[in-house]
Design a protein that fits this description.
It is flat, with a radius of gyration of 28 Å. It is built from four helices and two strands.
Length: 124
């Protein structure tokens, strides 16, 4: 990396740092306004998204590593598809009555008071 490249990077970091300081000032100023709940949430999310994107993109070098980021994103998508596929593949192997994605065993689990009576315990 030449001296020119370093000075260019330092200039970018200074600009991003300045924008983050201005974003913090805007955040403090926005906290003093009486927005409604919905508008307050929207403003907070917009400010946080802009500041978070700058930090992740420049200081964590995510803008420069797009190929790696897209690779990790694709791997995550493949993992999710495989896990959902395994869930659907094994869905028919389950026993009991089906209630959506949950299974209610038939006669395998007794209610607590019936189990206590079967063991001879006193149940009030």
């Amino acid at each position: 990396m030449s001296g020119h490249d370093v000075s260019k990077q330092v200039k970018i970091y200074k600009i991003v740092g300045t924008v983050l300081i201005v974003g913090t000032i805007i955040t403090v100023a926005a906290s003093n306004f009486q927005f409604g709940i919905l508008l307050g949430i929207i403003v907070a999310v917009i400010i946080a998204t802009i500041k978070g994107s700058l930090v992740a993109g420049y200081f964590m070098h995510l803008f420069a590593e797009r190929k790696l980021i897209y690779g990790v994103l694709a791997l995550t998508a493949v993992f999710i598809v495989v896990m959902i596929g395994l869930l659907l593949f094994t869905y028919g192997d389950q026993q009991g009555r089906h209630h959506g994605a949950f299974i209610v065993p038939q006669g395998h689990v007794q209610p607590h008071h019936e189990a206590a009576k079967a063991e001879g315990e006193h149940v009030p």
